Amino acid sequence: xxxxxxxxxxxxxxxxxxxxxxxxxxxxxxxxxxxxxxxxxxxxxxxxxxxxxxxxxxxxxxxxxxxxxxxxxxxxxxxxxxxxxxxxxxxxxxxxxxxxxxxxxxxxxxxxxxxxxxxxxxxxxxxxxxxxxxxxxxxxxxxxxxxxxxxxxxxxxxxxxxxxxxxxxxxxxxxxxxxxxxxxxxxxxxxxxxxxxxxxxxxxxxxxxxxxxxxxxxxxxxxxxxxxxxxxxxxxxxxxxxxxxxxxxxxxxxxxxxxxxxxxxxxxxxxxxxxxxxxxxxxxxxxxxxxxxxxxxxxxxxxxxxxxxxxxxxxxxxxxxxxxxxxxxxxxxxxxxxxxxxxxxxxxxxxxxxxxxxxxxxxxxxxxxxxxxxxxxxxxxxxxxxxxxxxxxxxxxxxxxxxxxxxxxxxxxxxxxxxxxxxxxx
Length: 426
Known about the structure:
This protein is of the alpha/beta class. The chain has three domains: 232 residues, HUPs (Rossmann fold, 3-Layer(aba) Sandwich), CATH 3.40.50.620; 70 residues, Tyrosyl-Transfer RNA Synthetase; 76 residues, RNA-binding S4 domain (Structural Genomics Hypothetical 15.5 Kd Protein In mrcA-pckA Intergenic Region, Chain A, Roll), CATH 3.10.290. The protein is built from 18 helices and 15 strands. The strands form four sheets. Strands 1-6-5-2-3-4 form a six-stranded mixed β-sheet, sandwiched between helices. The chain has a five-stranded mixed β-sheet with strand order 9-15-14-11-12. A two-stranded antiparallel ribbon has the order 7-8. Helix 10 packs across helix 11 and helix 12 crosses helix 16. The longest helix has 18 residues.
């Protein structure tokens, strides 16, 4: 992989590097291979070089499912590399329903059902993102805040005139519905305009320069980019993650029993763990890169396991994916119920670090290095920022010195929810 240009702000560079090396990046609107356009936009925002990006989720159900996890993990990596994620809940657009690549219209939901579903979605994101203050603190917004107040005729005049029916009919999601002679209502036809307007509003309100989503959202994302350029003269960007299928061709997250939901009240942590434990052999390495935060070196080791030993990798995948979704305690309980060995007496994942013997007695690995080795930070730069911001702790004590070292076994924490037990060997 080519060296990243020094002109890209480090936090944006770290994020884009993670997406590439772990397999998240499918399409990107930035014409430059080095993504320098996104970098320039970052420098021009009030965030001082940090990247603000969003993903939208309509409240069509009370939980998200495994099929959404790629976008959720992209938001998590965005925050872990010092950038700001925005979760957009589609309280307004849910009233229409995204027609993309659907054969029929979505059921119409009333306002009470949409509000209840939105509450369920918020519980999912609380597990994956930190909504605290600070430049990287995640935001959760609802597009009903601006869509509900739109006046129809002024909206058509100011926004609708930038969309041609010719182009809209050319999008795959629309063309396929029409080729199959399946009805597409005028209500649904407006969905792509409203999603484009969401991007424009988030740019204006929060300095958001990047929209992410699955590859089925590419046309809608491009609409938002074009709208911002025409209306505000603003350069916005989009990228998509691949639509995943298992090695046998099954759509990711679908089972004989239905969708694999992320909320515990829709699918138990044990059943969630079992879903990952049953991963096909050929998918283990890819899923470890996408759905866990394990270091790539450890993933490479697990990928090399063959025969019956591949079960070790599947147990690690299941436990790590469940830890992110339901917490360490639930992950360890699910692993124990599934016959897997516990990570340790305290239920925390164990990370073994080798002390550099050449450095002499009492020496150890720096906390920044330990954060990277444990998968709690994506890079040393991100780890040092975490330390400066007071987010790193050893045995519950904040680490304030970027040069501090780990000289003995300890619990290393990043933020309030992520912990590992470090084992330091000679």
